[in-house]
Design a protein that fits this description.
Elements (H helix, E strand, L loop, with lengths): L1 H18 L8 E5 L5 H8 L3 E6 L2 H9 L5 E4 L13 E7 L15 H15 E11 L4 H13 L3 E7 L8 E7 L16 H16 L11 H13 L20
Helix pairs in contact: 1-2, 4-5
Length: 253
């Protein structure tokens, strides 16, 4: 439903924000449990590149159909992250990592699968980068299990909780640092910094519809031409630009 899509993209936006990526260059991100590529769309819009992993062929089929810009890999992250060392400038994951706590097969040991995931993720990330994993823990034991395996694998950092006092809006982001321990960002809606954050939140909302960082408004002619140009650079088949590109159709039936 559109509500789910909206929440998903808000969480993707927040996860990318918590990565604290450099403004001056495009980064390569890993999206763990990328599903149909909704968080990937946001990453692409921000001018970054991504590779998505998911265990569900059906979800990845939807991503392919939607012509997402990232590369897609069908894989179970409990078996580890199969990329070369230091390849990614960051990793995000929206509502996926808690599934590693479930033993779906007799042979599955959640602590082992979590450790395998975190230790190979640690290797695949560039030094000084971050992983931000939004998750829905079932209980505090799950949170402790997940966090403990991440720390065992060498990460530092911890849990950032947005809107901790709201039953509905409360969100958990496991914010992990590779090789350097940064300061853990503050959760949104936490008392101490609430005024600053309210203001920041407000101005962010406003600029989103203008072109952030001087980028074209989504779905405008410029935006479409830029997207087509990006695709050509990636060696993809793209229709030639014409005077009709990006033009609204009249509603004649």
């Amino acid at each position: 439903s559109s509500r789910v899509v909206e929440i998903q993209s808000q969480m993707s936006e927040r996860a990318v924000e918590l990565l604290g990526l450099p403004d001056d260059r495009p980064c390569l991100l890993l999206d763990v449990g990328c599903g149909s590529g909704l968080s990937g769309d946001y990453i692409s819009e921000e001018g970054h590149y991504w590779i998505g992993m998911d265990i569900s062929p059906a979800m990845l089929d939807v991503a392919v159909e939607r012509e997402v810009e990232g590369d897609l890999l069908l894989a179970d992250v409990g078996h580890g992250i199969p990329f070369r060392p230091g390849m990614f400038d960051g990793c995000i994951s929206i509502s996926a990592v808690q599934w590693l706590c479930n033993a779906d097969k007799k042979s599955h040991s959640p602590p082992k699968r979590l450790y395998r995931f975190f230790s190979t993720l640690y290797t695949a990330l560039a030094r000084g980068s971050r992983a931000v994993l939004q998750l829905y823990p079932e209980n505090s034991e799950q949170l402790e299990l997940i966090t403990a395996q991440a720390m065992r694998a060498g990460f530092t950092g911890g849990m950032v909780v947005d809107y901790p006092n709201s039953a509905k809006a409360k969100k958990f982001f496991l914010c992990l640092f590779v090789g350097t321990s940064g300061t853990l960002p503050k959760g949104l809606g936490t008392e101490s910094a609430s005024e600053e954050l309210q203001q920041a939140k407000f101005t962010n909302e406003r600029t989103r519809f203008r072109n952030v960082k001087g980028k074209s408004v989504k779905k405008s002619r410029d935006w479409i031409l830029e997207k087509k140009e990006r695709r050509r650079r990636q060696g993809k088949e793209v229709r030639p630009d014409t005077k009709y590109t990006g033009r609204k159709r009249r509603p004649h039936f």
